[in-house]
């Protein structure tokens, strides 16, 4: 009888896990409190792989008013979501980099692991290092990955939580273009 109950419990847990994997990420439907408001600025060190092209630090306020910005929060431990969207972000950045600035915010991660992630995916847009996750708190982040679209005027227009698709990313870009 105990073996039967144990098997029944294991099957129930397995079924719940399977069901949970089939449902979409509900975070994507949570609205951002920042919608329409000025984007919180930050001044953070760039990851070493970004420094040659972008300098030692990135101050977001230096770019507001110049180009729209796609801000993506990620971590190397965010598997599989961040691994699935990294090639999409890089390919889209390469297509739009003359008109839109992409900025990655590596959050609550180990520096070595973050660098390996950047190298693995050949990420060329600037990525800052936020080991304590302060910027994510300022943006009201629910978890990684999350992507924010910031207008050229510096206002948050949209937030997407979860693995971003190429179609959704293109939609966010079209929304921020002047």
Number of strands: 7
Arithmetic mean pLDDT: 88
Oligomer category: single chain
Using the alpha-carbon principal axes, give the shape: globular
The number of domains is 1
Assign a percent range to the helix content: 25-40%
Fourth-level CATH superfamily: Glutaredoxin
CATH architecture: 3-Layer(aba) Sandwich
Count of individual helical segments: 6
**Radius of gyration using CA atoms only:** 18 Å
Sheet with most strands:
5 strands, mixed
Q: Could you state the order of secondary-structure elements as H and E?
A: HEHEEHEHEHEEH
Determine the N-to-C terminus distance: 68 Å
What would the CATH topology be?
Glutaredoxin
Largest sheet, order of strands side by side?
A: 5-4-3-6-7
Regions with little confidence, pLDDT below 50 for 5+ residues: 9-24
Alpha-beta classification: alpha/beta
Percent range for β-strand residues: 15-25%
Protein name: TlpA family protein disulfide reductase
GO molecular function: antioxidant activity; oxidoreductase activity
Keywords: Cytochrome c-type biogenesis, Disulfide bond, Redox-active center
InterPro entries: AhpC/TSA, Thioredoxin-like_sf, Thioredoxin_domain, Thioredoxin_ResA/DsbE_sf
């Amino acid at each position: 009888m105990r073996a039967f109950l144990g098997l029944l419990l294991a099957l129930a847990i397995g079924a719940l896990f399977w069901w949970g994997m089939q449902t979409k990420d509900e975070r994507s439907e949570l609205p951002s409190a920042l919608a329409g408001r000025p984007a919180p600025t930050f001044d953070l060190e760039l990851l070493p792989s970004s420094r040659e092209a972008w300098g030692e630090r990135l101050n977001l306020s230096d770019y507001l008013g110049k180009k729209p910005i796609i801000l993506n929060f990620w971590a190397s431990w965010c598997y599989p979501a961040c691994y699935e969207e990294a090639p999409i972000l890089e390919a889209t950045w390469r297509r739009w980099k003359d008109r839109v600035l992409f900025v990655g915010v590596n959050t609550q991660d180990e520096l070595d692991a973050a660098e390996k992630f950047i190298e693995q995916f050949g990420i060329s847009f600037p990525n800052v290092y936020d080991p304590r996750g302060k910027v994510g708190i300022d943006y009201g982040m629910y978890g990684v990955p999350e992507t924010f679209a910031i207008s050229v005027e510096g206002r948050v227009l949209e937030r997407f939580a979860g693995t971003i698709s190429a179609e959704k990313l293109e939609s966010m870009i079209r929304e921020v273009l002047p």
